[in-house]
């Protein structure tokens, strides 16, 4: 639900005037983010989207030609959140583009669970392609090239998942005649290896101190008020952060 707001924000930052179509390039793994975009579009937001994936291409095959099938093993890539073989939000997309026909979606998903494959019906694909107009598959080399180019041209470091979408933009030389944006999905600090392999001269060491910090946990036992326990803990952490923020400002 929160991601739906990202699409409205992106749209209003990119559109010249309200009502014109904007194209958004979406890094896609389990397809949750792009599902949020489809909901935004059905709410009336005038956008089209391109689903961009890594070499684990089940989402691209599903959204481009209706081939929702598991093939081979998951391939490890520089974009690990996309290293997925069964994108569970496809079920939500089917629900949206079958006009919320629960029984039809159930039949499709049960067939997929039995056989590891199902063909998305043509009428559903026709409806879906009005919103998700294209797909794109990026290799690790594409990811590194896009990360490097974004940095060289903008002095901005993107994460490898964001780079999958940026790679589509660089490959797509022809203008689509509408404003276009890339959704950034994660902080590059979480992927220092990808930054290094892309030959970007920026040290991503802001999270290294976390590796030396103690691991903390809290027991929650059956019968206890888990909601109350979690709420109290969240409030404690929030108060500590507020206190630290005030101390920093005083300093």
UniProtKB/TrEMBL annotation:
Domain of life: Eukaryota
Record-linked InterPro entries: Threonine_Synthase, TrpB-like_PALP_sf
PANTHER family: THREONINE SYNTHASE FAMILY MEMBER, THREONINE SYNTHASE-LIKE 2
Lineage: Eukaryota, Metazoa, Ecdysozoa, Arthropoda, Crustacea
Protein name (Swiss-Prot/TrEMBL): Threonine synthase-like 2
Any one GO biological process: 2-oxobutyrate biosynthetic process
Gene Ontology molecular function, alphabetical: pyridoxal phosphate binding
UniProt xrefs under Pfam families: THR4_C
């Amino acid at each position: 639900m929160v991601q739906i707001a990202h699409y409205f924000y992106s749209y209003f930052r990119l559109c010249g005037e309200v009502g014109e179509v904007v194209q958004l390039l979406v890094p896609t793994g389990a397809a949750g983010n792009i599902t949020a975009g489809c909901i935004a579009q059905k709410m009336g937001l005038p956008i089209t989207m391109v689903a961009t994936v890594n070499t684990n291409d089940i989402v691209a095959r599903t959204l481009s030609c209706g081939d929702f099938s598991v093939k081979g093993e998951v391939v490890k890539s520089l974009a690990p959140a996309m290293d997925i073989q069964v994108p569970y939000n496809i079920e939500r997309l089917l629900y949206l583009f079958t006009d919320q026909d629960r029984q039809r979606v159930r039949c499709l998903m049960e067939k997929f669970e039995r056989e590891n494959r199902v063909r998305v019906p043509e009428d559903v694909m026709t409806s879906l392609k009005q919103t998700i107009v294209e797909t794109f598959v990026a290799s690790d080399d594409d990811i590194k090239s896009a990360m490097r180019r974004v940095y060289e041209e903008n002095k901005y470091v993107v994460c490898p998942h964001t780079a999958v979408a940026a790679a589509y933009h660089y490959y797509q030389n022809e203008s689509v005649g509408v404003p276009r944006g890339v959704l950034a999905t994660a902080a590059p600090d979480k992927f220092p290896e990808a930054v290094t392999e892309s030959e970007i001269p920026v040290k991503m060491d802001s999270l290294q101190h976390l590796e030396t910090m103690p691991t903390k946990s809290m027991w929650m036992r059956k019968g206890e008020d888990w909601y109350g326990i979690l709420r109290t803990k969240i409030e404690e952490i929030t108060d500590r952060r507020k206190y630290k923020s005030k101390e920093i400002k005083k300093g």
